[in-house]
Give the backbone structure.
Amino acid sequence: MTATPRGIKNKNPGNLRYRSEWNWPGVVGIDSKGFAIFESPERGFVALIQQLKRDAKRGLNTFATLVPKYAPASENNVEAYIASLERQTKIRRDQVYDLDDRRTQELLMRAICRHEQGPPPSGLTDWYDDATYSRALDTLRPISQSRTIRGAVGAAVSITASAVTTVATTNAPDLATAHATASAIWPRWAPVITGVVALGFLALIVYSRVQAKREGVR
């Protein structure tokens, strides 16, 4: 029976050696050879892409420049490694890759894992299923691109826009009265006072609509 590769046992698909100063989330140990042990393969993949980004900032942003550092000739066949990555990703050795692109991230995860860990068990095309890669990629996604965050922002914009409309219509007479009163007493400050009153109406309406949504009221 074929032994399980070190990186699979360590949930470290890229065979990253542990470096305390990089503070990778999800590290739960270090093996006897100094390789990081992660709590999940997803965390291992996230650390892999973070490491590639760290290397790219130092100019190691092509297979030709990265692999000699990532997999030095003292331990690896550098040329074979580069050729393997080219074949799997269809990215040329001298082509700068975009580590902020989700598809590129996935290609590099799969290719590096396959080369580092070797062929998967018979009957499988990969060591990990698509869901594992998807969870890792979702973790790497900037918070501004999160579906949850975008949904919350969208809801907030919708509620606020609706509230502004209400202030501009329902509360228009009140605002007119506030402006007239302020103009008579403090002419210079009338616009400011009117604005504060409008914001007060707006805040009250937004709050009431958020509460209504929480309570299931439309």
Q: What stands out?
A: Residues 6-141 form one domain. The chain has two domains: 6-141, 147-214.
